[in-house]
Amino acid sequence: MKQTGFIGFPDARMKAVVIPDFFFTDLLPLIDDLAELKLTLHCFWLLNEQEGRLRYLRGSDLRGDEILLESLNLDNDLRTPQQALEDALERAVARNTLLRMDIETGEPESEDALSEDWYFMNTVKGRQTVALIRQGRLNELQEIIPQEARLKVERPNVFIMYEQNIGLMTPMIAEQLRDMERSYPPDWITEAFEIAVSRNKRALRYIQAILKRWETEGKEDDEHEITGRTTEEGRRRDYLPDEFSGIIRG
Q1: First-to-last CA distance in the chain?
Q2: Nearest to 53, CA basis, from 109, 106, 130
Q3: Model-wide pTM > 0.90
């Protein structure tokens, strides 16, 4: 049974958790998901507990954090705590609150291959640490992961692309974006976003229409498919037919 009320802070000396004032002035007004808010505050607490230069959070530790999961067991939320956590992580990364780095060990696609997701708070120290790791200049890293570990090549995440180019992400949109990642090559998705932005058609349905057309009719990489230019005199056409262009008005 859930606790229904807070009994108050104890009289004993309590340890303070440092939260930058920018959280309240710049970040808090942007957060519109309770799970994301709870995750963000929980990350501040966990990172405050750490010492040393390399301060980060493992995704596996967050997914096994009983206090965090209990806080995400929200009333009137159809998501499980685990689903709420995954959505919150995606939102925090897309919002640029957390910096994500993927670490791989073992041979790719082999039985001993392991993949970890690490999260750093997007502070000056967090950004410096990520930069040093990418450059292979952080000695503390060698004490944590094997020497053969590889940083996965980072590419724009579909959630980041959506937040930066389209708008705020809801759980329903997040699920559609996951389906998109499972259904289409990453290069297609990136190119579809670029086309939508260049034509000022900033809508997920328009991007989905581009990808669906490539799937059914085949994707051509010729320059005229992207720009409308062709070497054949007089042949110029829009990238998408009118019925796709008008879909964002529906």
Answers
A1: 46
A2: 130
A3: no
